[in-house]
Amino acid sequence: MHHPQPHISSSTSTSFPAATAFDFKLAKRRGSYNCGRCGLPKKGHVCHLNSSTNPTSISTPTSSPSAVTVENSSSASRLPHAPAIRQSYTHLRRALSFDDIETRADSPERDLDGSNSPYPGTDLDPDNEMISGGLPAGCLWEVLRRLPPAGLLAAASVCKGWRETTKRLWRAAEELRLMVPPRGQLRFIGSVLKKCPSLVRMSLKMESDVDATMLACIAFSCPNLESMEISTSNTAVNRITGDELGRFVADKRCLTSLKMEGCSNLGGFVLSSSSLSTLWLSDLYSLSKMVFNCPNLKEISLEFSRQENDTTDLTTMADGMGRSCPRLKNIHIASVRLSHAVVLSLTAANLRGLRMLSLVLGSEITDASVAAIASSYSKLELLDLSGSSISDSGIGMICNVFPNTLSRLLLALCPNITSSGIQFATAQLPLLELMDCGMTVCDPDSLNSPCDESGDNELPNALNNKLYLMYQKLIIKHSRLKKLSLWGCSGLDALCLNCPELNDLNLISCKNLHPERLLLQCPSLQNVHASGCQESLIGAIKGQVSDSLASLENQYQCKRLADGSKRVRAPDCLSQEAIDDKKRRKVVEQQCKVLVD
Predict the structure, then answer these.
(1) How confident is the model over 412-465, as pLDDT tens digits?
(2) Ranges of Low complexity compositional bias (predicted)?
(3) Domain extent listing, the chain
(4) Element (H or E) spanning 145, and its range?
């Protein structure tokens, strides 16, 4: 980004010393109060440096450290005809006191990058400018732009060249990811945002409370903001109300994505925007009204508080959302109040472009709800009904309607599903790449389930009432499946997987799975999560993974030497399947990790 530079006439550049050009301010006619060689005050000072020593260039090996600090200025390179007069070292003292400067992100009152300096520097060409130690400005740019905001503030206090580069970085920044400290959060946000006039994407991790003042500061400082994400820590509280959020969305005409956590104090809201396409709100609770006037909204995620006394009317919300947002493609709703009536309201909207539907923790969603979804939306690519009460019959309807489109199926926490339904789904869905069946096939006698240990009571009550006559076995053979999750399936005692593309397998807390009844034929496997399993099972997993890799490695053709003494691996040029061997070699290089902790 080019910025106007202060005008310096040719007569000025020849009459003023080089220090004047370095500081970009008028020369002192009264002389310097500091020594021209070492920079210390002249009063009562006897310089220990040789008076005949002249400052040299950076590339000269005999130049002193103080000369290096001075000659790294970009201004000196722009004035090649300036006489070599000794310069004052006022900026050197600031650079030497770098350790005394507070550079933490929680002290924003310090203007470390000099943006408020009365004599700001000019923006020079990064390709031609030389900074400290002869380093080109382009290299310094690439290094500094990878620093976090706190590190960038600290780098600005090194020297003037670094300060000018950091100022250009702030002005050119389009995306900012920042963790806001507990104290001085508003002043910190204001001091950072005023340095970034071109900011379009912002992500804030709040360690303190969020209120309307913070929202107003963001709206004022970022006129061209397109994406905003606010996440809160465990100790932070989001105090933004629904009216304040509605005004913010209405004023930001360029806003396309809004993601916010901790929205428990909204109470109710009306969002009107013609540009908003992505909306994520979490921790919603007892909303009196929810109105979406967003014709271009394509993705919405609403996560409600999991309290039983939540009074939000999801049926009315779903009906209004379907009518006012006709371009929705992805819908995610997580609430314990999800029911079959809510599903009917969504299906009545006839959202023709819907591709991903996620209705989580709705224990009142049944096979009838699956039938309504299948009759209205036949092109779904993702379906998440985790925590519902569907059975193997519902899985059969899913397989009959979505065999050519569905690639991700998530049915965790569904107590009425058996291993037969899981096996049927993998056999009837050829495009399936991800499947989550956690906590479906469970042992009713298991007292230490993962959810009990964490104190999480999200499982439906029907899970505890499910009876098993015997342990179940699961056999899956799939050519495209990449991720399979069977966490908490303590009712499985036998597992056979023949999935050449599978790279991630979750067997956490599969306590009753017998090592001799485990068969893994997955050459692409990279991660196996096995925490909470028996030691013998973990050993069997490691043995089968290593045997699978060894079998692939032995597939390379070998050839005996001329005297028949020993066998060596044949080169690729002698193999008729050289291309296949290269592919196998890539697989062998990928080491599978068995994650226990």
Answers:
(1) 999 999 999 999 999 999 999 999 999 998 876 654 444 444 444 444 444 444
(2) 52-66
(3) 131-172, 473-552
(4) none
